[in-house]
Request: fold
Amino acid sequence: MSTPDTLTEDVIDAWANDRNGPVALHLKQKLVPVEEGEHAMIFPPTYADIGYNIDTLADGTKVAMIDSVGSQANRIEPIFKEEPYSALVPQITIELRTEKNGDKEHRVVRSLLDFAHRGADAVVMSCPGLAQKVAEAFRVLSQSNDAGPLCELAPTSLLFGVWDSRGGSGEKRPRLVRSVIRAWGVEPLYAAAQFNSVWKALSDDQKAELEKEAKAKKIKLSEKGFADAPAVFRKVSQSAAKSMSEFRNGSPNPERRVLGGVVVSGSIERDITINLTALRQIGGADTDSTKQIRRYLLSLALLAATVDFDLYLREGCQLRFAGEDQWFAVPRRGDRIPIDLASEDAQKLLLSYAKNVVKPFQSKWPETLAYQFDIKEAKKLLAKKDEDEQGEE
Reply:
């Protein structure tokens, strides 16, 4: 492999605004479980009724989704709450409620960076003051492709994708940063457990009373911990259970078994793409502001895509980075070009660049950064049809 090109500010500027430049930046990142070994096992996410999301390719290779695009975005976005990245985006917070503990009160506050739908989240729409600002930002974006107002409020909405499905604009923007983790060559395992209750130690009279009460309440004793309960089959919805019986042809049905992780014989890979084409479609109020917006968003995208964050995805699935990262600039035609985004010098340059290009936006950040969730506004939102309900694309 040829020596990677050196990163410079001029190179970043060209990525942001030169329509003849590369269409994307891409990294295929190798990951390994912290429990490395010949029979490495990890736990993918489970989904209602289907269990693990495993696809079988034409050659028989089984590929498991380990962390989806949406999940990855929600894991990466909170890095902008922490130094040194917190100085690069407005730190808007929302107070959800106040809890009382004796004589003391505790305010439950969340950052805007914690909400899955970012600027278009239902919680944002239910905050007086903030809702109006965000709605106006989406209106301007929709009508004139001017992303300036949204960059001044919630720039990560443009970074990780947003859809104003509950607002008046219906504006939808693609992700500039897309990340997904898959495992190749997997074989699912199954789990079984047996809960032994106190039932055998109870007297016949006690058992009879509990059975009578459970029958009257139409509940199972095992659900309350008063009867032995095997854990062999997982629960599914009633509709799924009709076609997914616990036993099939006299044997346990694998589709209904309790899942026990997957053995990975192939690789675990994280694909990260920065979409430069989508970036260059974002505009501003004029030529200068358009360039500023693109440079600013690209600086955030580069930091988000290259940061080493914790890969503790869920219980039984803790990964770590393996080997050296090699990024590529992807042209419209021809060979991909290796570019240095991972070295210490490159990382210092990225942060320095971001601190410089954020300056035009910092002065326009809202004076008020703290807002309150209003249950009355939330109720109004419940009565409003969103884009999904209207059947719009």
